[in-house]
Amino acid sequence: MKKRQQKREVHNTSFTGWREVAGWEPKDTLTADDELMDLLTKQTFLENSLPEIAYGDWYHNFAALVLGATLCWIVGRFKLSLALVFFIVLPLALYYRTSIRKFRGFLRRELQREFVVRNMENDYETMNWLNVFLDKYWIFLEPGVSKMVCEQVNPILANSPAPAFIKQLWLGAFTAGTKPPRIDMCKTLAGTNDDVSVMDWGVSFTPNTLADATVKQMRNRINQKVIVKLKLYGLTLPIVVSDISFRVLLRVRLRMMTQFPHVRTVNLSLVNPPEFDFSCRIFGGDSILSFEILSIPGLKFLIDDMIKKYIGRMLFDPLSFQLNVPMLLAGEAFGSPSGIIEINVKKATHIKAVDTSGGNTVDPYVIFSFGGKEIARTSTIEDTREPIWNETIRFLVSDFSEPLHLDMYDFNDFRKDQLVGNILYDLGAFMDEDELSDLELPILRNNKRVGTLHLDMKYMPIIHGSTLPDGSFDPPPELNSGITSLTVVGARGFNESDKVISVTAEVYLNKELINKTGAQKSNDPKWNSLVHHMIDNRADSYIDILLRDGKKNVIGALHRRLIDVVDSSIVGYSWFPLNEGGEVELKASWGPVELPGGEKADSYVEPIGVARIFVDSCTGLPNLERIGVIDPYVRILVNNFQRCRTLVQNSTVNPVFKEVLYVTVASPNQKITIEAMDVEKNGRDRTLGAVALNLAEFVGKNDEGKYIESRSDETKEARLISSKGVKGTIKYSIDFFPTIPVVSQNELNKKAAREKEKEEQKKKLEEESEGKAEELKKAEKEKAKTLALLEELEKEQEEHKLNLSFDELIKYQQGVFVYDIISGDFGHESGYLQVYFDQNGYSQFTTRKIRKGGKHRLGVNGDYLVKELEYSQTVIRYVKDFSANRLKNSMAEISLPTIQLLQRSYDKPYLLKLPGQSGTISIYLQCSWIPVLMSQLPSQDSIGNSGQLSVTVLKGKDLPSADRNGKSDPFCELYLNDNQVYKTKKIKRTLNPEWNESFEVEIGNRCGSILNIDCIDWDVASHNDKLGSGHVSLADIDPMSPTELTVPLKDDDGLEAGEVYLRFVFRPKFVILLRPETTAFSLEAGERVLEAGVGAGGKVIGAGVGAGGKVLGAGVGAGGKVLGAGVGAGGKVLGAGVGTGGKVVGRGASLLRGLRGSEK
Prior knowledge:
By secondary structure, the chain is of the alpha+beta class. It folds into eight domains: 39-121; 127-330; 339-461, Immunoglobulin-like; 476-592, Immunoglobulin-like (Sandwich); 610-735, Immunoglobulin-like (Sandwich), CATH 2.60.40.150; 745-767 and 776-799, no CATH class; 806-931, Sandwich (Immunoglobulin-like), CATH 2.60.40; 943-1068, Immunoglobulin-like (Sandwich). The chain contains 15 helices and 60 strands. Strands 1, 2, 3, 4, 5, 6, 7, 8, 9 and 10 form a ten-stranded mixed sheet that branches. Strands 22, 23, 24, 26 and 27 form a five-stranded antiparallel sheet that branches. Strands 54-55-48-51-57 form a five-stranded antiparallel sheet. A hairpin with a 6-residue loop joins strand 46 (910-914) and strand 47. The radius of gyration is 40 Å and the shape is globular.
């Protein structure tokens, strides 16, 4: 067996860019005088002494060389002193130098003459604008370009197939020089499609002329230089390639697209062979001991032939080199796959056999190859010339410049399989459309048709996110299928002894070996081994790493969820502990691809806990509105995907939210982003700035490595960063509550299926092993041993999960409610399925658009942190508008207790029917419950924090006098979070008034609300006088029973101004504060006035409690209607506009009715 070559460690480049290579310093900056004066400008003594006719022509140089050679021969012939040679060579060398300087001056004048003379007309255009730009900015661009080249090339060199005795190979220095490449000419070809532009570019790259440059000029005029270093046998040897020049006619093909960056692909092809020249010195670097390799006769011609032979196969027209611009801008490594091609091989017809002698039959199968590698093959269909396969294969593709090879073979039992014919298919067809149906490809042999292959092909690209014009990032869809790029970088700490051992790493994905590194003899190996793999169920994918020594013994193992590795790579964590000690460095990236059937019902990733994010307030937000003020809200993103959001605060740059948001987290290394946004009525909402947080800073573990509850003691303040700079701050706090790992019903079902599959494989293996060679049996036993080890690693991770019954699960009131929506029958209307919980006004989950046409398989899932399972409500709606909130009309809707839905759908899928005006919508879903460890539910998160508050203004006592008679005419104005909600009647000539007036208001955040009371003296002829003011924190109110409080009043000078007596009755409910016609919430402070109190002669008027509030009569529902009079003499309720208002949902009132005591 051929020994696998070990992979080398990636070495960093020491010098990149022209400044570092030249050792440039600021003092070397050229002045205008430095630019003018070079060595050719200054004349030498000989130039001033000799007449012009005596030097400078070719025969002068020839004569000087002949004279020097003759004189030296005479010295040697007559055995004279060698010192005479010095006196011969010195004057002749000075004369030769003077003659050559004159010749170079002549060349300068000739070049100027060519520049002055107008060129003859041709159909090529100039690109002087681009050349001028490069001339001015190349010295600034070149260092960055050189750095990018080194970062890309060094890993390639480390993994190159160089001989094994070369231990390291890297770029020691690289610079493209200070002289930029030039586009000498350009021509645009006609007759292309509207989205394609094809041009011929004449490109040249020449070094600077340094023969007459001064030392200072040479520091600023650096030529191209590449130093490749290799380490072998303990020595480091440099190979220097410099003064590179080339000229080539390049054909450039640009395919456009409407989205940014507007160029989809760039194809480069060589119209003619390139002309190269360079200087190459080996084993000596820049010293005089180095050897110029091109001085070897004939080597330059050999290099030109090799370029034509190998580069021609890739780049000569019509072949091309393709660049995927969106992938490069997304940060993908060069050569990474751009997507997946799916081929449905249907059948072949009219196959002509190769050998028909002796009654030979045709047993066809097809091999698919791409990029010189076999990617798949069909099954063999025996004895037929009309085979039917109906098989589907998928493979990764990086670009479409390479054709797909399809080779059909005739299977033979005892002879070599014979080639029936082949097909070369140009994948460039996918540039025009992603799906190609009913293809009939001719099978060719000796350029003659010998059959037809029938198939369908589909290209599914990686979906990348994009940066929006406001600087925010629009992530790709969160799909469960896609491509993962997995890199095993290295390992450390696995060997406690001083002995150096040989180490190999094996990478398994779902127990399938996908990569194996080369053996590296080191206790700190660096492999940098990259593999790309297709994933159809990311949520259920696991990575296993096995480290083996030279004897193939396992010395370390790792078992991790794929999503954990991806999340860790996002935040820069790449080291993972091995089970036997030590660590392995592992990096992974994820590219979502929408595969058919890629979303599965078991695709949910179990969380490790929930993060409780308290959004307090923002200050100094940028005002993006030209007219008016922004309407900000805050959203929470996990790995760039939005999870939840706050209410909208209208017309303010200093919003106060005081809201709690919960998000589930699947890994401690996920990135949480808190982003302030501005509501836009037309178009996307705009970012105001964001702060990115590393969740690992808020997640704690105990000594056993289990996650524990972690609470923040204080609110943090952070600056908001956007593409326009840093402006504004946000106050927040984050708590973490771990989940209790439990075995779900899906896991039990999958475990039973795996056990059954394992028994079948074991039985099949025993049957197939009979009669096999001993070596093959040994390999199969080794494979079974590895599989048993991987299962043991998986079992160890599952052992910490609890297997609880349903009754035991629901004893935990706090938990993550997980719902899998499997399929549904949606009738004849297109729309979106939305899921709401409790008081949420915005949907917790919204599907993609469901096309009309009856039954659809969805295979989507979501979750929600239920804070009190006993009171929680679930609402599922089918709507027409994706952005519809909870108060907008729906086509079908159902509301039911969450615990009831959980009971019905826990063991198996449940059919849920949504009644609607135009018919009933039915969906199949299955739910599960993951308990959350929470020592005590914060009072702000309880159902007792929202509901209907009844306030009775009883009386006032010892109020100050404001009138001449020693009395006052007092009345009270009450403000909830700075919004006026009620005004009592006035009581004349008293300091101890009795009002006994009541009103009700809905509270969205009782614990964060303040009720302010202003006691005012009424005056007829002048302004009213303020007697005193006080406040009550609604957090001090008992939500379960009536509360009477005495509110002390103080005047503007801080002196005591009497007391006001209030009685509070709170009825907990889930309250929704939205208006259906807009995305904004109804009230700035989250409250709504419901009814006026008891009395006579009352009056109800609209005045403005806040944006979108309303007045409701006693017992009036969401319709918004005031019934009856009799509020009280002179009393009035100040509400907002009438319109359509919010509504109250939930079972909180009925469930808590028995706990409130004397409510009436």
